[in-house]
Amino acid sequence: DLPDDPSQPAVLFLDELTAASPYLQPTVHGLLQERRVGQHLLPGSVMVIAAGNSVEDGAVAYDMGTALSDRLIHLHMQADPQDWLERYAAPKGLASAVTAFLRSRPDLLDTTEDSLRRGHLIACTPRAWERVSEIVTHIADRQARSAMIAGTVGDAVAAEFLVVADEITASVHIDDLLEAVPDARVALFPAGLHGLNAVVFGLVGAANQDTLPRAIDVLEQMRHLSELRPEDGFGKLPLAELAARAIRSGENSAGRSY
Question: Within 13 Å and on the Cβ side, how many CA atoms surround 13?
Answer without folding.
Answer: 6
